Fold this sequence. Notes:
The protein is an alpha/beta fold. The protein has helices spanning 2-25, 29-46, 48-62, 68-89, 95-101, 107-115, 130-139, 154-167, 177-186, 218-226, 259-280, and strands at 102-105, 120-124, 144-148, 170-173, 190-194, 203-208, 211-216, 229-237, 243-247. It has a seven-stranded mixed beta sheet, sandwiched between helices. A two-stranded antiparallel ribbon has the order 6-7.
Amino acid sequence: xxxxxxxxxxxxxxxxxxxxxxxxxxxxxxxxxxxxxxxxxxxxxxxxxxxxxxxxxxxxxxxxxxxxxxxxxxxxxxxxxxxxxxxxxxxxxxxxxxxxxxxxxxxxxxxxxxxxxxxxxxxxxxxxxxxxxxxxxxxxxxxxxxxxxxxxxxxxxxxxxxxxxxxxxxxxxxxxxxxxxxxxxxxxxxxxxxxxxxxxxxxxxxxxxxxxxxxxxxxxxxxxxxxxxxxxxxxxxxxxxxxxxxxxxxxxxxxxxxxxxxxxxxxxxxxxxxxxxxxxxxxxxxxxxxxxxxxxx
Length: 297
């Protein structure tokens, strides 16, 4: 009986999400973003746990106390609400519209990396609108795949996958990511990895805002194995809700021959780059995520 109830609830959530997505897709962009802010504000005030976690993390990481922590946390929720609306509208957005929406900087770093013939790793985070970042890279003519994690709801996951596929974005399931990622890099393609969350994949503890955070070392392991460049890449929401995508120069990697030490040093390096962007634009990161949940033994 419990199993049937879960299946029914899962189906209802997915059906509702699909209907809402179809409605949002037909709206002009500005009203859709306003709806996103309204929904995010509602969630902010109703979800005490998420709100409390975001405020706690802001205080611990940036030293921000009341009432500034609540104001910044609310802006963080607003960004997430806008992200959701933009994601729902992505399938109906043409490459030309994406070009008008996103200013793309640093493509020369991608071109130089691909000229080496070993692919490249787009290292990013759950920052800005990361789904739009992938769509923007595709709109600029590159082949890119992202390592993703399945949602708990299989029906919701199917809807999200369909939205991505309509843009041309194909995911690589996290459980089989290494082999598939190696194939993509051998074909001289781009692989996108979001490496800023507490995860069950292989990782290592590095400093993140002054505290040890369990961080996936997959980007470094792939780079050291294949010779592919790691390109830190971030998308930043602007005050007028346009976006600026920035591709940085390749991350300088230590290659001492000591595998464990190289994984540690280089994972710390890319984590500091992610932290630098979050410090500059704190309202655009997911402070409600339990980033420091896993503790060192």
